[in-house]
Specification:
Layout (H helix, E strand, L loop, with lengths): L4 H7 L4 E5 L6 H12 L2 E4 L7 H8 L4 E5 L7 H12 L4 E6 L3 H4 L10 E5 L5 H5 L20 H10 L3 H6 L2 H23 L5 H10 L10 H8 L3 H13 L3 E5 L13 E5 L8 H22 L5 E7 L5 E8 L2 E9 L7 H10 L3 E5 L5 E4 L2 E5 H4 L5
Parallel strand pairs: 1-4, 1-5, 2-3, 3-4, 10-11, 11-13
Antiparallel strand pairs: 6-7, 8-9, 9-10, 12-13
Helix pairs in contact: 9-10, 11-12
């Protein structure tokens, strides 16, 4: 059971539910599990050769249906709008998609008010420890260390939080899974859902991204490597975000007069592709925090967002969680440095915000001034 199930089942009482997330993260398995428990039926657009009208006739007498990968139907928004407006009192619907349903909803006919959106992320320390709960934001401000699950942490760091490679704990299965997933994303998702035709170069771009994780994103550098235009690279990166391949963090400005506004940092949903140990650990922490802000928003806990901090004096903090655009918590990720980073201390005082430094090293539990320094396996479990 995944930790978003209770919220999904509660929201189904009032509206349709969308479940969005990357390929092979478990959306189909989860939706089938919910459908089976609640007496519903499952329909996959991948398997359907009929159009929307015939598909509609097939399930209107059901109480609950799952429409998997429905975004592949060109007119899916109008289709769902029509179904909701006519039948929402008698029919409950779960729509899943690996393309970003939360992005597509902003264009065309609005579905606002007809559904709740939930994100399914890769497994994390918190979900493994508490698979039926979504901890509230205030709980992460408790820096007392949890009982460490070192084995889970090391498996997440090595194999990612995608269920198949994580539970296999096999290097061979992980390697095969990684190659197959990349080919699936390029040959199916990108080909079918975008106008991109240069699939060989797209795959090359995907292979370049792991070495760019954690650093300010330079589209010019990628353009030079690929020998294509700036706008082409930019458009491809935007497609990667829509397809849950990568996500970008912007620099938080707020009241920081010397912050750098236009810079972005790139992270991958699958951090296991990153060879550099420091960048891989930073991406793992980013993935945990990214999941937290998504689930807190999805559950109605507040308007939480994730940023990084960097000013013109080159002071930088890896992550800044905000609530209602005000700093909530600063997080720095280090492989083994147990002395709080100077920029972390500076921005914590400047923004009057609590801060924590997370390290990959096992057995770290200390406090330097006002800043706790903890092993990742002792604190990340407080996140969803």
């Amino acid at each position: 059971m995944r930790n978003i199930v209770k919220s999904i089942e509660s929201d189904l009482k009032n509206k349709f539910v969308f479940i969005a997330g990357p390929r092979q993260v478990g959306k189909t398995y989860l939706s089938k599990e919910i459908s089976s428990r609640l007496g519903g039926k499952y329909y996959s657009w991948d398997l359907s050769v009929v159009g929307g009208t015939l598909l509609e006739k097939g399930f209107l007498n059901d109480r609950l249906v799952v429409l998997d990968e429905l975004h592949k139907y060109d007119h899916w928004k109008n289709f769902i709008k029509g179904i909701y407006d006519k039948y929402h009192e008698s029919l409950k619907v779960i729509v899943t998609g690996s393309a970003r349903l939360d992005i597509y909803r902003r264009g065309g006919d609005s579905l606002m008010g007809r559904y709740y959106l939930h994100h399914l992320h890769p497994l994390t320390m918190g979900e493994l420890a508490r698979p039926t709960e979504v901890p509230r934001p205030e709980e992460i401000l408790d820096f007392s260390p949890l009982t460490a699950d070192r084995n889970s942490f090391e498996n997440l760091l090595r194999f990612s939080g995608f269920p198949e490679p994580f539970f296999s704990s096999s290097e061979e299965i992980h390697n095969k899974w990684s190659i197959q997933r990349r080919e699936l994303l390029v040959r199916e998702e990108i080909r079918d859902l975008t106008n991109i035709s240069m699939l060989g170069l797209v795959e090359h771009l995907m292979l370049l991204l792991p070495s760019r994780v954690g650093s300010p994103l330079s589209i010019n550098s990628l353009r030079e490597d690929l020998q294509i235009s700036y706008n082409t690279v930019k458009n491809w990166l935007e497609a990667f975000q829509k397809l849950y391949i990568s996500f970008h963090l912007k620099s938080y400005t707020g009241s920081l007069g010397r912050s750098i506004q236009k810079e972005q940092k790139l992270y991958l949903w699958d951090w296991s592709q990153i060879s550099d140990p420091g960048a891989r650990f930073e991406n793992l922490v980013a993935g945990h925090l990214w999941k937290a802000v998504h689930l807190w928003r999805d559950n109605g806990y507040g308007d939480y967002e994730l940023w990084f901090l960097r000013d013109r004096d080159r002071r930088e903090v890896d992550f800044c969680i905000t609530k209602d655009n005000k700093p909530f918590l600063l997080v720095e990720a280090k492989l083994s440095d147990t002395i709080p980073a100077e920029p972390l201390d500076y921005f914590s005082n400047r923004l009057k915000t609590r801060a924590v430094q997370i390290v990959a090293t096992q057995g770290v539990e200390k406090k330097a001034g006002s800043i706790p320094v903890l092993s990742a396996d002792k604190w990340l479990g407080r996140l969803p």
